[in-house]
Design a protein that fits this description.
This protein is an alpha/beta fold and about 290 residues long. It is built from nine helices and twelve strands. It has three domains: about 80 residues, Arc Repressor Mutant, subunit A, CATH 1.10.10.10; about 100 residues, Periplasmic binding protein-like II (D-Maltodextrin-Binding Protein, domain 2, 3-Layer(aba) Sandwich), CATH 3.40.190.10; about 100 residues, D-Maltodextrin-Binding Protein, domain 2 (3-Layer(aba) Sandwich), CATH 3.40.190.290. It is about 40% helix and about 25% strand. Strands 3, 4, 5, 6, 7, 10, 11 and 12 form an eight-stranded mixed β-sheet that branches. A two-stranded antiparallel ribbon has the order 1-2.
Length: about 290
Amino acid sequence: MDIKHLQYFLEVAKLNSFSRAADALFITQPTISKMIKNLEQELGVVLFDRSRKQLTLTDAGRVILEHAKLIDHAMKNVSMELSNLLELKKGQIRIGLPPIFAAHHFLEIMSKFHEQYPGITFQLVEKGSKRIEEDVESNLLDVGMVVLPTKPELFNYFSILEEDLQLILPKSHPLSVRDAVSLIDLSQESFILFNNDFVLNDRIIQSCNLAGFHPNIVSESAQHSFIKEMVAFNLGIALLPTSICRQLPENVKAIKVGNPTISWNLAIIWGKDQYLSFAAKHWLHFIKQHLVKE
């Protein structure tokens, strides 16, 4: 039995006639009669009483009719849902974002995407790069924004932002009079870092070690806004991406760091061997068009 058998049966039942059903379906009467006969043989019951002047359903036919209506309705819904997905009229994208980057420009682009595809919804999850990679790999997220390097054997990716980290410190700090400092100048400072879920945590510690010291870490946080406030209250110094340093508390200053500089490179990743929805594929194309500079 296939859906066409049931659709022919429904049309005959609705019109109480093989000939009228054949005309409505643009097929010949022998064709539809044969299809109904095959359906009856497959089910092992008679569906229509053909002994009367007007074709009528048997008891078995009435039972099959109710189920055929449900199946036909379900198939039409499936077709409509698939059409909506293919035409990007609906869908959901699960996106992992690090709470470490300045999201203003990214959200502007998201807004443009939403204007074009209002039926597509977003689940935005804030986590560090390490956790985002884990969740993309385990298919808990469709795509994620992470700090490079990533794992090319597991993920496809494209870079969207590269910039240096800057030192933020209270304006009352002795180093605040400088335009730039060397990393070794911070060897006696108290550091406020992101927590262990963040790749930048590792990057800063490794850079300090290469400069000849291990940073004295007094606190860790998952929120750059909280780190800025802790610096404002003279609890320590921090190293943050340049884009985040554009908006600081009034009594906090950002200055350049060199010897060595510490940079970060943000990228969008998605699983190499995992299914990606139509909406997610189109979103990736849209983001790449608007964020990647050729």
